[in-house]
Amino acid sequence: MMNDQQLRTMLTSNDIETPATLHSGIMRRVRQVQRLRQLRELGVAMVGSFIFAGAIVILVMQRGIFPSLLGTAIESSLIEPAAIPDFLRILAQELSFQDQLLFWTSFIAILVAVEVIQKRRFVYSPIQFHRNLG
Amino acid sequence: MPLPDLPEDILTAAQRGSESAFETIVKTYEQPIFRYIYRMVNRQHDAEDLTQETFIKAYRHIARFDSQLRFSTWLFTIATRTVYDWLRKRRIRPEVLVDTVPETKTASSTYKRVDIKLDINAALQSIKPEYRSVLLLYYVEGYSYLDIAHALDLPVNTVKTYVHRGKIALRKLMDAP
User: Fold this and answer.
1) DSSP codes joined into one string, B11-34
2) Number of Cβ pairs closer than 8 Å across A and B?
3) Over pLDDT 90: what percentage of chain A?
């Protein structure tokens, strides 16, 4: 009857050689996955930007109601953050349900796009690259 | 002894998408992971494919890795699940389920015991994959019962039971008269 030590010795006795192509094979597939991921994220960012741009075009060019709201939005968010509730109230009063839906959908879309772009810039910024190398 | 863990900055860089950091991870762990998978499946080409699959899964999900845990344990978790999935898809069943070999020494059971006298590799392939993985992690990789329990998402007592049963199963095959 073999004991634990014998069992351990037997299990580790056969020398298994790692194939020479293993490392390159793994890294090749990693690069493929990375490329696909970049393409997908770029696609998300582009779709988000297109949706937002489309929404702006519809609101500004076709309905002619957006410039004043846009001005209020800039004032609210950049100059006086305390005015944001007022802006939201004006938005709710001035825009129909459909327009509000369009506005918020496009707003979320651009947030997603910005988030994706920020992430990519962060990952691939030269500083980060050198840090990773270091 | 279990495999040493990587410096935290390498892991963090890999989690942020650095290819060079991930390549360091691959260099560090490719051999032990390949050897483990090879012992699990006993086929060179499949072991190579499954090792690649393991690292690709790790690459895809590394952002979710909790750095409080041991990285090598996490990799062995992925490797084990990848092998289990492969075994399930291929419907590979052990040729001899040693659990079912009767204890009584009737003429037929003695005959069966003689017939299944195997070397260690063949014997490993003949026991349940659950026992095989636990035995390899415990005896070859040197992980504790607790580490294996975390890696395979099993209660510690189940791990102990698997080690015990796996050992008995192997001994039955190896000590056949």
Assistant:
1) HHHHHTT-HHHHHHHHHHHHHHHH
2) 87
3) 5
Cross-chain Cβ contact A7/B170 below 8 Å: yes
Cα distance between residue B78 and residue B72, in whole Å? 10
Q: State residue A130's pLDDT score.
A: 41
Give the pTM.
Answer: 0.66
Average pLDDT of chain A? 70
List CB contacts of B140: < 8 A, sequence separation 6 or more. A8, A11, A12, B35, B36, B39
DSSP state of B38: H
Q: What is d(CA B118, CA A8) in angstroms, rounded to the nearest whole number?
A: 17
Contact residues, B window 15-34, toward A, CB-based 8 Å cutoff: 16-23, 26-27, 30-31, 34
The interface predicted TM-score (ipTM) is: 0.72
CB contact under 8 A, A18 and B44: no
CA distances to A2, B3, B97 from B167, rounded to whole Å, are: 10, 23, 13
Q: Indicate whether B89 pLDDT > 90.
A: no
CB B58, CB B78: distance < 8 Å = yes
Interface test with A, best of B1, B8, B9, B18 (most A CBs within 10 A): B18
**Residues sharing a CB contact under 8 Å with residue B145, sequence separation 6 or more, in sequence order:** B138, B156, B159, B160, B163
Is residue B48 within 8 Å of A30, Cβ to Cβ?
no
Element of type H or E holding A76: none
